[in-house]
């Protein structure tokens, strides 16, 4: 399993003390879950964000994003943010908050 440990650590710093957040190896990378629902993850050096179906088009309009696609069929409600889209801490914070907010809107697993 290969993922950017530096990016994972940046995410950990932001989610740090939240007892509702756990880590799990998924998608060949590392996922951060809020009460069992994936919020964000790291695959390679990119960020995966679960934004929900209603926010997908808006998320994809942002720079350095694309649909999350592992099988040839994009996953609705998920986006991948490339390295330039998360280079700045403020941008990473915004994406993490979007993923956490969506995951928190779901029933706990």
Low-pLDDT runs of 5+ residues are: none
Tally of helical segments:
3
Major beta sheet, specifics?
Answer: 6 strands, antiparallel
Average of per-residue pLDDT values: 94
Q: Oligomer, anyone?
A: single chain
Strand-and-helix sequence, N→C? HEEEEHEEH
In CATH's first tier, which class applies?
Alpha Beta
Please indicate the percent range of residues in DSSP E strands (runs of 2 or more). 25-35%
Report how far the terminal alpha carbons are from each other.
Answer: 25 Å
Shape: globular
CATH architecture field: Alpha-Beta Complex
What is the rounded Rg?
A: 13 Å
- Helix proportion: 25-40%
What's the CATH topology label?
Aspartate Aminotransferase, domain 1
Q: What number of domains?
A: 1
Question: What class do helices, strands and sheet pairing give?
Answer: alpha+beta
What does this structure look like?
The protein is of the alpha+beta class. It has a single domain, classed as Aspartate Aminotransferase, domain 1. Helix content is 29%, strand content 28%. The chain has three helices and six strands, in the order αββββαββα. It has a six-stranded antiparallel sheet. The longest helix has 16 residues, at 89-104.
Summarize the structure.
The protein is of the alpha+beta class and 109 residues long. It has helices at 5-15, 56-60, 89-104; strands at 21-26, 29-34, 37-43, 46-50, 65-67, 78-81. The protein has a six-stranded antiparallel beta sheet.
């Amino acid at each position: 399993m290969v993922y950017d440990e530096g990016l994972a650590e940046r995410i950990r710093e932001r989610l740090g003390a939240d007892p509702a957040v756990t880590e799990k190896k998924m998608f060949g990378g590392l996922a951060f879950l809020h009460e069992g629902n994936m919020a964000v993850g790291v695959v390679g050096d990119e960020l995966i964000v679960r934004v929900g179906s209603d926010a997908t088009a808006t998320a994809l309009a942002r720079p350095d994003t694309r649909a999350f696609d592992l099988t040839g069929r994009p996953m609705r409600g998920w986006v991948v943010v490339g390295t330039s889209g998360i280079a700045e801490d403020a941008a990473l914070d915004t994406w993490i908050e979007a993923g956490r907010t969506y995951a928190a809107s779901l029933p706990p697993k």
